[in-house]
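seq/struct pair 1
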Amino acid sequence: MSDRVGKRRLGRIGLVAALLAAVTTPVVTTATPASAVTLPTGFQEQVVFSGLNLPTNIEFAPDGRIFVAEKGGRIRVYDDLADTTPTTFADLSANVHNQHDRGLLGLAVHPQFPAQPYVYVLYSYDAPPGQTAPYWNDNCAAVGGTNGGQCVITGRLSRLTAAGNQMTGSEQVLVQDWCQQYASHSVGDLAFGADGMLYVSAGDGASYDVVDYGQRGTPINPCGDPPGGAMTPPTAEGGALRSQDLRTPADATGLDGTLLRLDPATGQAAPGNPLAGSADPNARRIVADGMRNPYRITVRPGSNEVWLGDVGWTKWEEINRVPNPTSGVTNFGWPCYEGAGRQGGYDGANLNVCENLYTGAGQTAPFYAYDHAATVVPGETCPTGSSSVGGVAFYPAAGGSYPAAYQGALFFSDYSRDCIWAMLPAAPGGLPVASNRQTFAAAASNPVDLAIGPGGDLYYVDIGGGAIRRIRYFPGNQPPVAQINATPTSGPAPLTVSFNGTGSTDPDPADQGKLRYEWDFTNDGTVDATTATAQYTYPAGGPYTARLRVVDTLGASATATVPIQTGNSLPTAVIDTPAAGFTWAVNTPITFTGHATDPDQGTLPASALDWRMNLHHCSAPDNCHIHVLQEWDGVAGGTIAGPDHEYPSYLELVLTATDAGGLTHSTSRRLDPKTVNLTVATNPPGLQVVFNSGPQTTPFTRTVIQGSTNTVSAVTPQNAGGTTYDFASWSDGGAQTHLITAPAVPTTYTARYLDRGASVRLPQSQLDVADVSSQETLQTNGRATNVLDGNTGTYWHTRTRSSALPHPHWIDLDLNGSYQVNRLHYLPRQDSANGRITGYEVYVSNDGYTWGNPVATGTFPNTAAEQTVTIPPTTGGYVRLRTLGEVNGQPWTTVAELNVGVVPTG
């Protein structure tokens, strides 16, 4: 457990507490860099706005105002870069579904603002299709959480009208669509082209854990994807396959995983779109599809050329380019492709939508893709592993404050890696060259959006730090960086505070160690001390603000401030439950309670407590990024279900207490999941099986969270050692591609394969009795399934205790797969009491209902040995043995064991 203290900012600070190292002495800075950011020579990072609550998007209006979207649904507006007290332009929180990766994510200002006084928003709407928000009220616990497949929402694009710094009237809904079944891959971004049209991106709304073709949810297929009902390969078109919906025109087109080009006044398809003649209004809107999560988009200045940062699954991050949105629909291939190659998980599921794309239906490779396991720039310090491409922004092709080499460059960021890169053109102002990349900002702070602001500086949104950061270029002398360390910052009066400014720095070698310090302890304009360290005693009253100005040898300066409160002491937040060491499985109820005390107020009321549950998603123990699962404000506790998520990952519960004077204290507790090892094998060993995202050679073992849902796909057909193998069955009875719910104990799952071309007997455990005409019901050994138990002492016996049933009798076997059947193996029950079958017919069916003519007929010899009936090779999934008569005058049928021989068809 860790404790943090700090000054309360606008909104809640739970995520900030989760991201910062534990401190006992506040460090408050103004216009300072990120903690460890590394920039090219001459560049410096500064904080321009702070105190925001999970900011997601920044937009600069033509008149100088700056709009910032917060994930929960609020839009803040600043008059200019000097404004430190923003106005709330709009509050859409009642409509916004703010859980996990869902929220207010897209923002755009009309290019003729304020003459055209419109602000555009794209957000996750808190209601399923056809319902009205607030429906879930940001709480999906009753349906297994946001990643349980049942918390279905939609996306909404709206236009807001500005009157001064506030929205007037109600939002004008332009588009409501984008059925989103899972917690991630929600709506994306907005941008205007040089043509004045509005470009809109959104994700596929599918699961990030499993190969999702629409097979989950209660009811199954809540988004109504074709062909309808339960989804099974190869015909399924749901889940991530929604990104390919334009290629299945038999049904209405959805907008998931697409880029739209719209008339900004109406939300309808813009004139000149590639499918303008389609009868489907959504098809008319689409200019690109086949994307997983195009979280951020940008338009190359002076053009309609759209570039997209598409967040990948487990292997590749993509930068996609649509050179001319009106020339044709560009398909980037997801989920059939990831990066330039086939996506192993969806390829292994043998889905028609993908198989058709593989055979030449058309797929455009990304302009640039980077592997999760590789650096973007060789030798850089940016980490590998967990990756999620974030912002994208073009530097102007001419002018700007940066060196000429950056003119026309594409900046792009990765939220998980905390880095920003520049993709430079071969010559200033030209097209970026994918291979011409440089690390621009290593160890940046949670960058989720990039923008070029006034003067040609790069700005980025720091979602975790609740800040907007600017990267400036100083061709000559760089200003210093001011930093204050103050202790204590609150307490009873008189309060003596020790100040230390030695953490202040200057990037220029000539200025290092030569800074001048000017302290103004009450922020009244008077310099009170000029040493690096100082003390000051505050009387009762306040609150006060202490200011430090540091000046370098050439007169460049920077300031930092810290708030001081006298007569008020910090509260203490305490998490009571769950206790340290608590572990959880998927859907385990996690109930939490807490309290807070204050030296001045005593026990704080529940209204002073704010909670946040963070999910840390890791690729390595020291490489994690955060998803905010849920927030609870003003309550003493609550409950959340353990999320379904891949491992390694863990939860962090953060409690923040705020006293009447605005002082806060945060404490957190790490909650680790219960895990289990799942082993995947094949018979014969050494073949390829897909586990979730990609194929791997068996046997292998994966550690997963207990209760998590995972995909296994037996790759079929496949070649090993010159032999072609076809999938036969799974040891757990599942289909070739199916879902596994992780048990609490280690388990092995084995895929059985057959040698193509070799006649083999199917494993007894693969067969099921599909139907039977009659059977002994009063004796244990009369059950029809006895023909599959491998025990010659038990058998199928067609009679009742009191009467004999006349012939014919039949028993049907389900082969659990399609095969070329060429043999029926039959073990008769040979004794005087039970008789012996003399006449038989054998049938083969594809569906178990339509049987046609017999494929073999005959009589059995008078023997107790197993008999083999040779069948002309016939393709099917069901086999029927129909018995016609018997000897010894007994009107019943008795069979000890049945089996089928096949030649795999592939």
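seq/struct pair 2
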Amino acid sequence: MSLKTTYTTYQQHAQHSGLPITQSLNKFTKDDLKISESWHQALALLDHAVQLLPENSQDVFGLYERLFMDGLDFKASVYLDETDYNFHLETVISVLERLAPHYPLAYSQIAFQYREARGTHGDAEKIACYLDKAIENNVELAVAVKGYLLYYGIILEKEEETGLRLLNSSDSIWNKLYRGHISLNKGETEGLPALIAELKETRDPLLKKNVLLFEGNYLDHTNNIDAAKSLYQELVDHYDADFAMFRLGTIIFSQSEDESVKDQAFQLWQEAFERGTIEAANHLGYHSLPSDEQSSSLEQAVYWFRLGHLYNSSFASYRLALLYLYSPEALDVEKGMYYLDEAIRNKSVDAMVEKAEILIEGSLSEKNEQEAAILLKRAAEKKLPYALNRLGYLYENGIVATNSPDLARALSYYEEAAEMNFPTAINNAARFYRYGILGEPDYKKAQAYFEKGVELNSPYSMTELGFMYEDGTITQDYQEAFNLFNQAAELDYPFAIHTAGTYLENGYHNQNPDPEAAFQYYLKGAELDYVNCQFEVGRCYRFGSGVAENPDKAIQYYLTAAEGGSPKAMVELGLCYEYEYGVEFDAQKAFDYMQQAADLGYYYGQYKLGYYYMHGLISKDSEQALLWLGKAAESGYPNANLEIGDYYMYDYDQIDQADKAFGYYQKALEQEVVNEGLGLCYEYGIGVETNNAEAFKYYEMAANNNYIVAMYHTGRCYLNGLGVKENHEEAFRWFNEAAQSDNVSAQYYTGSLLLNGKGVTMNKEEGIEWLNKAAAEEHAVAQFDLGNCYLMGDGVEENEDTAMYWFEKAADNGHEKAMKLTGRKKGK
């Protein structure tokens, strides 16, 4: 049966009960009115009695107070369906409108009905209208309430001055009370105990209840929780105060892990909600959400959030939106977007931001960056720092109507949010000034912002400020840089962990390298899944830096880092497979890892891939080799230019374009890298005029940089006085050094000089050893000279057969004198 039908029956009974009206008006106790049916029966009686006013006015007003002063009107309607609720609200307002001319406080109650109404029944214009009617009839409560609503912009448009003028228009207890609330919200608590003591002198029960609630709020704000809890309990026991129920439940919930106590909190929240504290439904919903350890459903949470949403709680609507948008158990994007829009309708800045992010991302709805910007601007008007910072991002990246960056506006948003101590915005503003994104860098402003970020524990600010101390944009101070990196590392900021580890490993800040400590930092970063640290741990195990060498662990960490996208780790894995470190040689795996690194644009991967193609690790392909070596050169790796230069110099493909080599060697030289190539170009006039002095200069330069072939050529220059004064001692030094690294020509000259005592004390035995090494590698001159040694008994026992053996070998390799000795002709 509908409420309308039932209420009609109640009205008929009220009109024809036969009981004296006074007796009827007083028969309903507070306990009776806690039941919805009894409450509506009493409302029907009030409806009838109002028509008889001013007869029995005191009893009529008494029933009105019992019906409306303790939240029982809300309790009577809270679980009604929409049809019954609509009838309930219409009827209540009709009764109150007829009562108000006789009892003006009822005008305020009509305003409260519209304020607490469900959904679209809430009406700011009507709230203002009925409060004004009450004010016109000198209702002090209405003056205070409207002043407070205007001051904070709650429901009504914010008019701070008008609100204050109303609150200061008299020293009524209500005005004093609401002015006290404003002081408390501002943290101005010094005079509040005296004010509370003064206000508690009132004998008006409604005022006394509200003063005690204010005192509880004061105790709450000043962290006198036990006293607040005791006062809230008194308010619950003696006044059925719904806000006191809510706060008492919240305190109980936060102070105990005992499930029975938490059940008590839930009961208090439910009673508070049923009497009009909508926030209690939000608590019931939030604390009904399954925790990580629970497998319970979302049903209870959804139930309470829906009730909160029903009464225009933007928080409840927002939480429902999140559940439907992102929870697998409740996934329903259409519902999620509906509740998100409802939360926005009720001015939830969180919902505005959430929908803006969805519109920017374009995953749950069609992408619409312009609408996103509008929502963020609405949130920014509420001074939400996240929204201001996000708007800065949109303008910085041109993701707004202009489709081009507006850096000035971006910075203004960042700075506005930074003033609110929003760390990300502080970082962004600092970044603009640090790197001169809007013009010239302003290091002082950047430093000031980063220091502010450091105060707010922003690891990004710590790290960037550290780099400013490192690179000298502030006074260069490596110790201070390390201190900041270390501070950020303690906050588990992976980039800073890696940087602090690098400082420790190299001792940049104190000239005292500590690889063991560095390894621990890298390990910490690796455990946080930071690929650069995973690579470093692999490197430490590979080379025994700060920890014992361990090939298996090196490979393990390299693999993890490579899977995480580290091109350095890919290269190292490729090298491990190439050089058989910790794994068996596998040309294909070496090639594949280099390919992966090269595809990610990593210069050394590009270089090695080109090298593999050039020298045929799997198959030779000069075109691909030149392509990848060119990419590596463009990436700034000079050795790639050397490799391309060698391709033309040594004419791998017999294309006779050696002159091109000089340009590539010159490019490498510009980056302070040189091999023997430039020396060859100057010695033989390849791509440049012949210049022996220049040839020697570049040979020696490359030799000093450990290029083995260049060491050989440097020795040759000293031996023959090519571009430098002849010096057999220097010649032997360079030949010997190259010989130790298996350069065959240098081994020959080392042996020859030792045999003849040129530039070194004669040592025929050692000389013969070096000649043997070169001869074994098919060096024709070494083979011929070795044959002569055996023929003449020079440094070895004379032996014509062995001599002829070596002459034959030399002849096989084209040595002209050996060919004559063995009776061969050229080309045979």
